[in-house]
Amino acid sequence: MCTLNVCGLKSKIMGPDFEEFITYFDIVCLTETKLGNTDEIRIDNFTLFVKNRKRSKINSGGVAVLVKNKYISFINVHDTDDNFSLCFTMNEKKLGFKLICRVAYIPPENTRYSKIEMFDILETRYLELYQKDVEFCLTGDFNARTASSQDIDN
């Protein structure tokens, strides 16, 4: 599994590099897809699940999950009551353990779409879903600021 901020999915799929890169992964979580409700995206050998930002004058934000078609029967995508995350579960029998994944895109601070409550919502949803013997993966672009610290760990 990998997570990418694509900063516009339509522009990424026009070039060969993106499609070649994603073939190395079974599940690809995408942030800042910038898709509209009428956009149709097709990527060979993958199924795309999309959550677009609502109430946007231009296509911005958005999250998506790409799943290789051969694994689609092991994935269940769940609708969320927010407009910045997408939740999916993977078949326990296939993995050997329960796994809940959530991909989120939190807009940068001081933009018209940012709200500090987004972090509270993520925490609340995690606590609601928390169960003993269940693994949880939260991934995405949180536009976190690390000040002078590196945001990549070698």
Automatic annotation (TrEMBL):
InterPro entries xref list: Endo/exonu/phosph_ase_sf, Endo/exonuclease/phosphatase
Example of a GO MF term: catalytic activity
Residues annotated as domain Endonuclease/exonuclease/phosphatase: 2-144
SUPFAM superfamilies: DNase I-like (SSF56219)
The protein's name: Endonuclease/exonuclease/phosphatase domain-containing protein
Source organism (scientific name): Patella caerulea (Rayed Mediterranean limpet)
